[in-house]
Amino acid sequence: MNIKNILTVVISIVTVQLANAQSSTLKEPVSFKLSNGLTVIVAENKNVAKVHSSLTNDIVNDNQAGVQHVLTAMLNHATGNSGINYNENGGHLMASTADFGDALSVLSASIQVPTLNQEIFEKAKATVIASVKGKKQYYPAHVTEASLEKLTLKDVKAFYNSNITPAKTYLTIAGNISVVEAKNLAEKSFASWSETQTEALNSK
Fold first, then answer.
1. pLDDT value, residue 22
2. Where would I find the H helices in 25-166?
């Protein structure tokens, strides 16, 4: 996902917020990078009750059909009932301003140190295959039962290693939170994430 698409996501979130608000104190979105290369985009709107956040990645290596869908299912398995949801556009959460910091920490942990083991891989692959068979959502034509059956845990780890890195990640934060507070929370949750950490995870 490129920066144009990321900004589209932010605008969509803000539009929904504006539709639900009686009046708006929306400020112009602010963008900055953390020291590890992660891009943060903040859209402050003090007139809404919640804070929405999305974590998306600039996918550049999606040669194996279905691998991203299986990784998404594995990430969702790890988040449980935390209120965080992953789809092919990334991870998403909504929380009150008071609870947002804790929720962001959970989102951070789910992407930085996911449990990529064989057991969860098999469950996730079975889930995606069942979804494809049942036509429960749209899938590109090349994502088939046959292509999914060929995938291995090694394929998923290789995809993660190539695409899920700080420099290719965009964190959007929109809602009832100041830019200063959002920056502090983003740094607290994501500044320690490094390329070396990702490589170490996938070497296991």
1. 44
2. 67-79, 97-112, 118-134, 145-150, 153-163
